[in-house]
From TrEMBL:
The lineage of its organism: Bacteria, Pseudomonadati, Pseudomonadota, Alphaproteobacteria, Hyphomicrobiales. The chain crosses the membrane at residues 21-38, 58-81, 93-110, 116-138, 147-165, 198-216, 293-312, 327-346. This is ABC transporter permease. It holds the Pfam family BPD_transp_2. Its main location: membrane.
Length: 356
């Protein structure tokens, strides 16, 4: 007797929709049990994590600020994941985009420039695309596993950023702190919606979402992504080169991650520091799958993850809960989402007798 997974014959849209919702509820239930083991009230934690993140205008602004890079990166990752390609190094592409975009802001510091931030975003996107191209070409040319190469490039990007802000890009008047000069106003993203926190990066995220909706549903390229991911042999017969697809989607994914990094340093931080990301590139993997790789779903899941991140910071202060608990929750959520997807696509079957 053995237990096997067999494909389900009929998978309804309702099942697909219910899977991430059920996964989110289960993840919160498990988190409540863990919080109770810490001797804290789960209801109080819910108030801090959820209600506190939506309680006032500042919290709502912060929610949008944190959701912006998650949306941009997750949309980029969805191009890869739809093609059954695994870009796990968006964090490194984010860092490289922020570094090179920030370098433009630093290079123009003290000049007579009236508008620098568009160049910051452009260079950040190009740098991210180039960094995303590296694991793609390694896979296409040498057959290297893109999961490993993209992930290892994250450490290289983080160490390179750390070296640059402690060396060539360090502020000479910064009291020896490892940081660059503060960007001038011309290099900072303009604020939008009358807010003092929400910046132009949110507008870019909305534009990217709308463009991706059209590409995925109404373009030959969107069809190419679907058929490459679902039926690689059929894609080959249709004349779609898997190597070309790999390079294109990795460059798109890297460009959007780099754009997110540039918008973060020019919109949120205002300078380069040894650390410019709290793990947006890794959290975006959860966002992409929780959102079912659909642009609208990604927006909603990015708001949920941003709310959890803000709540984790509040819980660390108000409930003395470790911030790592939030990171663990994100990992747990990803695991449950993937498990729910598997259970939607497959069902357990008990097979009697020996394998023939």
């Amino acid at each position: 007797m053995r237990l096997e997974l067999s494909p389900r014959a009929n998978i309804t849209p309702l099942m697909r929709l219910a899977a991430p919702i059920a996964a989110l509820v289960l993840a919160f239930a498990i988190a409540a049990i863990v919080i109770a083991f810490y001797g804290k009230s789960p209801l109080q934690a819910f108030d801090v994590y959820i209600v506190g993140s939506l309680s006032d205008s500042w919290a709502l602004q912060e929610l949008l600020v944190k959701a912006t890079p998650l949306i941009l990166i997750a949309i980029g990752l969805s191009y890869c994941f739809r093609s059954n390609l695994w870009n796990i190094g968006a964090e490194g592409q984010f860092v490289i985009g922020g570094l090179f975009g920030g370098w433009i802001a630093i290079a123009t510091h003290g000049g007579e420039w009236s508008l620098v931030w568009p160049y910051v975003l452009l260079v950040g996107a190009v740098a991210g695309a180039v960094y995303g191209f590296i694991p793609a070409i390694l896979k296409v040319r040498f057959g290297a596993n893109e999961i490993l190469t993209s992930l290892m490039l994250v450490n290289i990007a983080q160490l390179f950023l750390d070296y640059m802000v402690r060396g060539p890009l360090k502020d000479p008047k910064g009291m020896n702190f490892p940081q660059s000069v503060t960007f001038e106003d011309a290099a900072l993203l303009p604020k939008v919606f009358g807010s003092d926190r929400v910046h132009f990066g949110l507008i870019l995220a909305i534009i990217v979402v709308l463009i991706t909706m059209v590409i995925v549903s109404r373009s030959i390229f969107g069809y190419r992504l679907r058929i490459t991911g679902d039926a690689p042999k059929a894609a080959s017969f249709a004349g779609f080169s898997s190597k070309t697809t790999t390079i294109i989607v990795f460059c798109i994914s890297g460009a959007l991650a780099g754009l997110a990094g540039a918008s973060e340093v020019a919109g949120q931080i205002g300078q380069l520091q040894p650390t410019i990301s709290p793990g947006y590139g890794f959290s975006a993997v959860t966002v992409a799958f929780l959102g079912r790789l659909h642009p609208v779903g990604i927006v909603l899941s990015a708001l949920v993850l941003a709310m959890v991140m803000i709540g984790g910071e509040n819980a660390q202060i108000m409930l003395k809960l470790p911030l790592d608990l939030t990171t663990a929750f994100q990992g747990l959520l990803l695991l449950i989402v993937l498990s729910a997807d598997a259970l939607v696509s497959y069902k357990f079957r008990i097979v009697r007798g020996r394998r023939g």
